Amino acid sequence: MREEEKLTYINILISTLKKKEDLLKKLKAETDKQADLIAESEFDPDAFDATISKKQEYIDSLLQLDDGFMDIYSKVKETMKNNSSDYRPEIEEAKKLIKRQTELSVELQSLESKNQTGLAIHLSRGKQKVREFKTSSKTAAAYYKSMTNHHQDGDSYFLDRKK
């Protein structure tokens, strides 16, 4: 492989790392949106689903970038190891990008964990509301049933019994 091709591949690696960082930032922004939605008193499941869909798009793109990165890296791996002094600026930039991506990934994991806990609490509240609704519905149904059975035809509360 010619020197010019090697440098082109290394620059493609750096470009891929930059795209990956941008996607991680977008993923973090969507995760922040989820946290806001969970914190609201009225949970909006449609908005929450929209953030999940958007995050899935970003994750799919990240996986594609990772696959492409590994393909290209396998072509220049030996060159970068054996001639590291020739590509020092590019290698340093790649290291910085990877470090920032690692930091973003840790932040994302922390946010996801918090969101998962918050969502579990929110869902348990929802389940409690459903139980309360079912109980009150059963009570109301039982009351109306007992009232209809208690009042017989011909019995009127307003019937004057004097003759």
Keywords:
163 residues, single chain, mainly alpha, Methane Monooxygenase Hydroxylase, Chain G, domain 1, 3 helices, 85% helix
End-to-end CA span = 118 Å
User: Which residues form runs of ≥5 with pLDDT under 50?
Assistant: none
* Beta-strand content estimate: under 5%
The major sheet is characterized as:
none
Number of helices: 3
Mean pLDDT: 83
- Secondary-structure element order, as H and E? HHH
User: Over all CA atoms, what is the radius of gyration?
Assistant: 31 Å
- Which CATH architecture is right? Up-down Bundle
Q: Helical amount among residues, as a percent range?
A: over 70%
Give the total of beta strands.
0
CATH class reads Mainly Alpha
Shape: rod-shaped
Counted up, domains total: 1
The computed structural class is mainly alpha
- CATH topology (fold) name: Methane Monooxygenase Hydroxylase, Chain G, domain 1
Describe the structure.
- It is built from three helices and no strands.
- The longest helix is centred in the last third of the chain and has 63 residues.
- It is mainly alpha-helical.
- The protein starts with a helix and ends in a 13-residue tail after the last helix.
- The mean pLDDT is 83.
- Helix 1 runs antiparallel to helix 2 and helix 1 runs parallel beside helix 3.
- The protein is 85% helix and 0% strand.
- The chain has a single domain, classed as Methane Monooxygenase Hydroxylase, Chain G, domain 1.
